[in-house]
Amino acid sequence: MIQTEASALDRARRKAYRRLLPLLFLCYVIAYIDRTNVSIAFPYMEKGLSNFGKDVQGFGGGIFFIGYFLLEIPGTLLVEKWSARKWISRIMVSWGIVAALTSMVSTPIQFYIARFVLGLAEAGFFPGVIVYLTHWFPSRDRTKALAWFLIGTPVAQALSPFVSIPIVELGVSMMGGEISEIGQVAGFTGWQWMYIVWGVPAVILGILVLIFLTDRPRNARWLTPEESEALESELERERLEKKAASGHMSWGQALKHPKVLVLAGAYFFIVTGNYGIEIFLPTILREWYQIKAADLRYILMIPAAGSLFGQLFIGWSSDRTKERRLHAAIPIYLGATALMLTVLGKPHLAVMMLLFTIATMGLKAYLPAFWALPSLFLTEAAAAGSIGLINSVGNLGGFVGPFALGKVYELSNKSFVPGILFLCVSMSISATIIMTLQLGRREAKSEPSLGSPPSRAD
Hints:
This protein has 20 helices and four strands. It has helices spanning 2-36, 38-48, 54-81, 84-101, 108-122, 125-134, 139-150, 152-168, 190-212, 225-246, 251-255, 258-289, 293-299, 301-321, 325-341, 349-365, 367-371, 380-394, 397-411, 417-436, and strands at 172-175, 178-182, 184-185, 188-189. By secondary structure, it is mostly helical. The chain has a two-stranded antiparallel sheet. It has a two-stranded antiparallel ribbon with strand order 3-4.
């Protein structure tokens, strides 16, 4: 009987990987592109529209996260209490529409409003998926599942330039590698077409989410009754163990939990560094090395590939060792060190890209281990509310990083160096906070063996 249950559980876990993660991965790729493609579009917007400078790029890139902050916790609780499938579908359709409408902006104020509303539309997606994965994946699989979802960010970083740069250059005249004139194709400029083209897939995927995602194992027609029962039983066993260890906690109490507040602080400082670099890296490379747009798309693949490797390795290693704290903090320290070295002179482009690759690995690789931490001491609505709080407060750093880098650039004789050093300090603070937590250390006892984790070949 035990062997039969173990086999049913293994089959259910494998099916969950195959059914859920590819679609969630695609959704995150499009979400990340729609959030950050302003970094590619802005030089063309700056040339074609009046009063668009680096400070507008920084503020507009960051104000997204103010809207994001406002609806993050309610959205995450809806995933836990109502329906992840319906809520994620609503999010994707609305953000796809808003992303496409960004093509209509013509003033900085309109740009700010579009970015703010895009943040409102997307709020709840990322933490909602984190919570949703706890409904499907036991703790032994959760960090690896998170890693496969989170590699959507480096894939988006690699894919976006290849699609976006040819689009934004539609109708553009170049002279000496610089934009000389912005023309139109079928009544729209290239940067307008870019926003439209990337808005459409979000709407399509939102419809597919409604059709193909399933809220919980007990609702899955693609699982046999034995498989859904085995998976539900395993998840319930873990939930009861955590509740027995930490006691019942409401989501309101979780929001005041010291560890939740500390994790929110750590996430704020690392997100500050991440989006400061994310929004400005193409601009920095253009200015420092006069790189043409056609070459830039290949160069930007290098840090994206490093981030992808880092996330998969950390997710695998963290699950294998059952250790979370060091797996989150050490990559951030390494990334901050590499980023600091980018401002010490102007080395060959290959050396600079190696440094930026290590920096972006540090800004991404920590994620699977970090997001496994809240579920170590919280369950159900308490975990959902805390994840929403951590993500919403942390993502305010997504406003601070780009805004600070753009503003300091304008105030410091057109130099990115002071702003980059600020981001290094922010990253180091985040890693130090995580290191001080008495949470996520290597587990003393391994979990009950109920079958090996699903392999990539399954």
